[in-house]
Amino acid sequence: MSTPASEQQPGTYDPSAYPSVFVTVDLAIFTIRNGVLSVLLVERAEEPYAGFWALPGGFVNPDEDAGTAAWRELAEETGVERFSGHLEQLRTYSEPDRDPRHRIVSIAHLAFAPDLPEPTAGSDARAARWWAVTDVLDGTPDDAPGLAFDHALILADALERVRSKIEYTTLAAQFVDEPFTLPELHRVYSAVWGTEPHLANFRRKVLKTKDFVVPVGDTGETTPEGGRPPQLYRRGPAEVLQPAMLRPARDDD
Amino acid sequence: MSTPASEQQPGTYDPSAYPSVFVTVDLAIFTIRNGVLSVLLVERAEEPYAGFWALPGGFVNPDEDAGTAAWRELAEETGVERFSGHLEQLRTYSEPDRDPRHRIVSIAHLAFAPDLPEPTAGSDARAARWWAVTDVLDGTPDDAPGLAFDHALILADALERVRSKIEYTTLAAQFVDEPFTLPELHRVYSAVWGTEPHLANFRRKVLKTKDFVVPVGDTGETTPEGGRPPQLYRRGPAEVLQPAMLRPARDDD
DNA sequence: GAAATAGTGTCTATAAGACAGTATAAA
DNA sequence: TTTATACTGTCTTATAGACACTATTTC
C-alpha cells in the first residue's frame, strides 16, 4: 500500500514537496459608539472585491506569530498606539477558494475597546470607518455594505463570540473607559446583546460578583436632562463570572 | 512615509513577494478507556524530535480546507471509517520557530468519541497508542512521554476546551456508545473533569434538561458484582445545557 | 412641584448542594 | 441476609426574575 506524503507527519517527509500557502490575520474590531455596537471596516480599492468593504488585516510577517501580527494591524488600523482593550484569536478560515487568486489562510482575531476614535485615513488611500454591526450583518438598509471574501461569516462568528464572552467573563468592562458607571456598563450589555438585561438585577449581579468592579468613591456627572448622579467604578481584578450573566432572549431573531 | 507591503490588505499587493508557509492540522483525539480520559499519540521516527510522541496530524492538501483535512487524518489515524463522535477546530499555533526547519502553521483540532479501538499500526511504521491524559500532561510517571514541538501546549488547550465544552453542551454523550446508562454518562464527566459530580444531583440535572437523553425503555446488564440493572438511554436532540452543568472544584491542582 | 435618572429592598421561582432514603440485582 | 449498584425524595441554600419603592439631580 503506497503512502501518499499527505499522510505523513509534518517534517517526516520533505514539506517543500507541498504547495505553500499565504497566511494572513483578519480583525473584527468592535467598539461602542453612541450606544451602538460598531465594527471597523476598510473599503477595498482594487480587485478582487473592489468597492466592497472588508475586515482590516494583513500578512503575517516571517518573524511574527499570528498574535503579534494582529496587535500590529490593530495599532495600524485604529491609529491607537496604547490600546486598552482586549484581543484574542477567533478561528482560522481556510476554504481553498476563499480568495480567488491565491491560497490564503486567514487566522481571524477579535478585538474590542472603549469608544475608539474615527480611524485615520492611514498611509494608504483606503477608506476606513465604523459601521453599526446590525447594518452590516442582518441589515438591508440602503447603505449596507457588501462584505468581501468570507468576511460576513467571520464577522458573524466574531459577533457571537463577543456576545457569549461577556456572559461568563468580565470583558464587558473593556468596552468602557475608566472610571465608568453601572448604567454605562449596562448599556454595553444592551448594545452587544441587542437586548436589555433588567437593570436592577443587573446591578445586583455586578455588585455581588467579587472584584468585577471596584467603587471609586466619587460620583460622575449628571445628564443634561437631570437625574441622580451615578457612582463611579473601575475594573476589578476578576476575570470570570461564576455563575454567568444570563443573556435574555432576543426580541428579534 | 513609506508603506511596507506587510501593511497592505491581502491581495492589494502581490503576495508572492511574501515567504510562504506550510499549513498542517494537528489533532487531539480523546476517548475514554477503562474510565480514563485518553489521547491518541504517535511516536516520531525521525528528526526533529525523533523518539518523542506527538499529536497525529498532517499537511492540508491544496483542495482541502482545514476541517476536511482533519476529518481525513482522523479516519487515517484511528482506522475508523464511520466516526461517530465530535470534531471541531481548536485554535491555530503559529510561533515562527515552533518547527525548527520550516515555517509551519498548525490549525489544531479537537475530537472525541466513544471508546475507540487500539490504533492499527498504519501503513507506515510509526507506533501509535492511547495515553492517559494525566500521564502525558501533569504526569511525572516513569513512562511519561516527552511531547514534540508545542504539542504539550496544544494538548493542554484541547483538554481545557473539552472540560469546559461538556459544561454547557450535551457533547459528553458523544463519549459513550448508544444505548448508554446514566452511570456511564456520569463516569464521562468524572473522567474528563478529574472530579466527581454528585451522582444524585447529576441525575436530576440530566433528566430535567429537556432532550439531553431519551429513555429507551429497557434496562442494561447488571454488573458482575450485582446491583440494580440501570435504565438505558439514547442521545436526545438538545445541544446546549441551559443553565450549564457546574464543574466542581478539583481536588488536586 | 414634575420629570428624569440612579439606586434599594423584597417577594417569588428556579436550580444546585447535601444527604437520607428506597429498589433491584448477585452471592 | 449481605453487598453492590441504581435510583428517588426532600430540606436547605444560592441566585435570577419581577417589581415596587426611595434618592438625587435639572427644569
What would you call the quaternary organization? homodimer
Number of helices of chain A: 5
Unreliable spans of chain A are 1-8
What fraction of residues of chain A sit in β-strands?
15-25%
- How does the overall form of chain A come out from the CA principal axes? elongated
H and E string of chain A:
EEEEHEEEHHHHEE
Mean pLDDT of chain A: 89
Helicity of chain A, as a percent range: 10-25%
Largest sheet of chain A: 7 strands, mixed
Cα Rg of chain A: 21 Å
What can you see in these coordinates?
The structure is a homodimer of 253-residue chains. By secondary structure, the first copy, chain A, is of the alpha+beta class. Chain A has 5 helices and 9 strands; from the N terminus they run E-E-E-E-H-E-E-E-H-H-H-H-E-E. In chain A, strands 1, 2, 3, 4, 5, 6 and 7 form a 7-stranded mixed β-sheet that branches. A two-stranded antiparallel ribbon of chain A has the order 8-9. In chain A, strand 1 (22-33) and strand 2 (36-43) form a beta hairpin. Chain A is elongated and about 65 Å long. Residues 1-8 of chain A have low confidence and may be disordered. The interface between A and B is large, with 60 and 60 residues. The structure holds a DNA duplex (27 and 27 nucleotides).
